[in-house]
Amino acid sequence: MNGYRPGDDVGIVDHEEKLYVAALPDGPIVVLDGISALIWDEACAGPRETLVDRVAALTTAAPEAIRAHVDGFVADLVARRLLQ
Amino acid sequence: MSESQVSVPLPVRLRFGHAAVQHLARQIGVDILHIKGAAVDPSLRPGNYAGSDVDVLVRPEHVPALDRAMRQHGWRLYSTFEYGSPFGHAQTYIHDAWGFIDLHRYFPGIRLEPERAFDVFWSDRQEIEIAAVGCLVPGLAAQAVLLLLNAARAPHQPRPDVSAAWRKASDEQRREIERLVGRLHAEVAFAAATGTLERHRDARDYRLWKVASEGGSRTEEWWARITAAPGVWAGLRVAARAPLVNVDHLAHRLGRIPRRRDIVLEFIRRPLRAVLEAARAIARKAVRR
Questions:
Q1: What is the pTM of this model?
Q2: Is residue B33 helix, strand or coil?
């Protein structure tokens, strides 16, 4: 299964260790900082089914402990059409 | 994840502003070119300065369509072509998410008809990525010309971009810039930026660029505009506008929509200011004698 990618109508700015994403042309600007930026990067970097495991490995967390948070966060980004 | 309640740094906001207006223009089939700020090639932008607003040059016949679309997508008119600047070349919009954008229908200093001037820039356009969106910009020589013409309107300001665009340019780059200035009929404003304005003392718009580049009183500015206007009727139209109140500026100064009384008061104050300036000028001349 493929990974996620930014939505077709999305602008992205990487600035001073924060990621800013926005639906164009109306906005708003969403700020992804720390763990949320890491999840975005990983979501776009590999398969969907291993996303939780990869984030868990990078944050030394147990996959089951973070699964609901990661899935919920990504679902929210998809609902906002920031990810697809 | 947090939304616009948190402060978004200006350089970030500006990049999104470029991307948003490009996205919209592409959606409705309007030709725009991003000029100044983040759209300028880094070689012409000392210190990586990204400006304080977004500037786009719009194909003149496409201005109404872009204006309509922008208003439908949350941009509010902040100042109009008529009152935004003495040149009437741009109007400013503000958007809650993207901040300010200046929409240019032509560029001051270029005497070639706006439609043909846009074609000159468009024919040499390039695409750069801003906020992950492909944005169209003029070619490098055209960017240098626009920076120089822009600098001609900024009296008494240090302009590192003039240094980058002209003083540090190679002979070949200078020849290319001069060729483009010739095609655009922008010799006088260009001379004002590069310190050779006195060679154009006989030009119709010499006084205008003298005041624009060196500063001057409001009265001097209006006389310069009347002299620079192409033909008697255009000059009279400028003259007729001179005593009118700039409602946009007044609104921003008051922080609210001006009431009839505010406009009347301002209407009275402006000629008084002009008389005062004239009296000061006469007094200065008397002192010199």
A1: 0.81
A2: strand
Residue with tokens 């930014």: A6
- DSSP structure string for B63-126: HHHHHHHHHHTT-EEEE-HHHHSTT--EEEEEETTTEEEEEESS-TT--S-HHHHHHHHHHT-E
pLDDT at B213 over 90: no
Q: Which residue has the higher pLDDT, B180 or B159?
A: B180
Percent of chain B at pLDDT above 70?
Answer: 73
Interface with chain B: mutation pick from A8, A19, A24, highest number of B CBs within 10 Å: A24
Question: What would you measure as the largest C-alpha separation in chain A, in angstroms?
Answer: 39
* Structure tokens given for B92: 């400013």
Contact check, Cβ <8 Å, A22/B16: yes
What DSSP string describes A31-67?
A: EEETHHHHHHHHHHHS-GGGHHHHHHHHHT--HHHHH
Q: CA distances (Å), B29 to each of B25, B74, B104, in order? A: 6, 19, 17
DSSP B258: P
How far apart (Å, rounded) are the C-alpha atoms in residues B49 and B227? 35
Q: How many CB atoms lie within 10 A of CB B187?
A: 18
The rounded distance, in Å, linking the Cα atoms of B54 and B37 is 7
Nearest-neighbour CA in chain B from A23: distance (Å) = 9
Is A31's CB within 8 Å of B6's CB? yes
CA–CA separation, B29 and B105 (whole Å): 16
CA dihedral (A19, A24, A29, A30) positive or negative: negative
8 Å CB contact between B168 and B204:
no
Q: How far apart are the first and last CA of chain A?
A: 13
CA distances from A49 to A19, A34, A52, A55 (A): 23, 22, 7, 12
Cis peptide before A25 (omega within 30 of 0): yes
Residue among A16, A26, A73 whose CB faces B74 most closely: A26
